[in-house]
Design a protein that fits this description.
- There is one protein chain.
- The protein is mainly beta and 171 residues long.
- It contains no helices and 14 strands.
- The strands form four sheets. Strands 4, 8, 11, 12 and 14 form a five-stranded antiparallel sheet that branches. A four-stranded antiparallel sheet has the order 5-13-9-10, with no helix packed on it.
- Strand 6 and strand 7 (82-83) form a beta hairpin.
Length: 171
């Protein structure tokens, strides 16, 4: 029996910014408000604004590193299927720790994902911080086995709990 899996991702971010001047001799209070809702929907498929595979996990690192490989089917979805990404369309990582100094460093993998300019490039996610990248274009972030397929995560000397969500295509 053949089973068809469908995946849809909907992500949103609401930003409210109010910048006002206080005091002074102005007759009124100038302001510079911004209300913006940024949303993204990836429907099932492998084209523009589409994804057909996804993986999510909450994990803990105790003073160590781990390297996630997105091309070799080592990441297993909720149905027990090993995932081999060809493109990543959405990646979100949330450092759930809230204590100062409990950071999560991403990057510096041997075969880094193409979102990093070099194998030594890193980004530090501070306590309660989020790293989110959405590339819903047809190209997405290309995953190339054995050369551009890995994401290294490093908790330094802390124990860090993090959640990662990845959506992309297998073609």
């Amino acid at each position: 029996m053949s089973v068809t899996y469908n995946l849809q991702l909907t992500a949103g971010l609401a930003i409210t910014w109010t910048h006002t001047a206080a005091g002074g001799t102005l007759a009124n209070t100038p302001s510079d408000p911004l209300n913006e809702i940024m949303s993204l929907t990836l429907d099932n498929g492998t084209a523009l604004n589409q994804c057909n595979i996804g993986w999510a996990s909450t994990r803990s690192l105790a003073s160590t590193t781990e390297t996630l490989n997105f091309s070799n089917s080592s990441l297993v979805d909720a149905f027990g299927v090993g995932l081999a990404f060809a493109k990543i369309k959405f990646l979100a990582i949330w450092n759930q720790n809230t204590t100062a100094g409990q950071t999560l460093v991403i990057g510096n993998a041997t075969n880094p994902l193409a979102l990093f300019s070099a194998g030594t490039a890193t980004y530090t996610i501070g306590p309660n911080g989020r790293f989110i990248i959405a590339e819903p274009s047809l190209a997405g972030i290309t995953v190339t086995g054995s050369s551009a397929d890995s994401l290294k995560l490093n908790s330094g000397s802390a124990t860090v709990t993090y959640t990662i969500i990845v959506a992309g295509t297998n073609a």
